[in-house]
Amino acid sequence: MTSAGAFAVNKPSQIGVLLVNLGTPDAPDAGAVRKYLAEFLSDRRVVEIRQILWQPILRGIILTTRPKKSAHAYAQVWTDEGSPLAAITRAQSAALQAAFGETVQVAYAMRYGEPAIGPAIDALMAAGCQRILVAPLYPQYCAATTATVVDAVGAHLKTLRWQPALRFLPPYHGDVSYLEALKASVETGLAMLDFKPDVLLASFHGMPERTRALGDPYHDQCRATAHLLSKALGRPIEVAFQSRFGRAKWLEPATDARLEQLGREGRSVVIFAPGFSADCLETLEELAIRGKQQFEGAGGRHFAYLPCLNADAPGMAMLEELVRRELAGWL
């Protein structure tokens, strides 16, 4: 048991906030992607197949074929600041720190890749944080996202002799502040277009249908978000699920199939991703680039992708409100 994360006893007690997102490779090359995928796809909450069956497939097939293809996709969206997900999460952390000032220490971590959750907790503790709010940046709860953050935090706490008091930001799929931020963001995006879309399509990350059958609330929470946002906007919103992987049945309708159908029908479409707190590979490459190609390849003409909340004003106002609410009694 390590004391690496022990509190700085000579400093006044501080409150820490740790923002956590999914993760990203360190570079848009096959080696970095292989390392990232090996960690991500070895999580038993992400792939719910017996490891004795899954690991030979992962090591023998997926990690020898997929990294090169994924690296090409990452290269299309990589920025001077690195991965979009990492750059935006870093900006969200900095903006939240500015909003709270010296009363709170704000840090960020990735569930897979760097900066890792354990060292981030250690750093907050070293800064004197005896109370830490862990904030998984997932509006809709899923065992493969929210729960695995809690798993990782718990695993790190097992290594510590002196542990902090912890709270976790709950899912916020139907929270008024989240819906208001989405409404403002979507309306701003629509106002900038030179066409009026026939279809407003909300694309959420897909999950195997089996997870729904096992009781995961993710599907229902995605549908609830879209329904509430539709009411707030006063217009219909379609729902689809992206990023299918493997042969298992996934949540439907599939985003790529729906985009191709809309293209064949000659309908104009605006797509956005309310389940992602920051733009990343799945939004910038899979939707904005590849989704547009699928749509136009099927004959469609008018297509637009609207950015995530990111570190823009509506999203940061929402995040600050959620965090302040969960820090009640500590601040």
Identify the notable features of this structure and list them briefly.
331 residues, alpha/beta, Rossmann fold, 2 domains, four-stranded parallel β-sheet, 11 helices, 8 strands, globular
Structure description:
The chain is an alpha/beta fold and 331 residues long. The protein contains eleven helices and eight strands. The protein has two domains: 14-171 and 314-326, Rossmann fold (3-Layer(aba) Sandwich); 176-305, 3-Layer(aba) Sandwich (Rossmann fold). The protein has helices spanning 30-40, 51-77, 84-100, 117-126, 143-157, 176-191, 209-213, 218-233, 255-264, 281-297, 313-326, and strands spanning 14-23, 104-112, 129-136, 165-168, 199-205, 238-242, 269-272, 303-305. It has a four-stranded parallel sheet with strand order 2-1-3-4, sandwiched between helices. Strands 6-5-7-8 form a four-stranded parallel sheet, with helices on both faces. Helix 10 links the parallel strand 7 and strand 8. The longest helix has 27 residues, at 51-77. It is globular. The two termini are 31 Å apart. The model has no long low-confidence stretch (mean pLDDT 95).
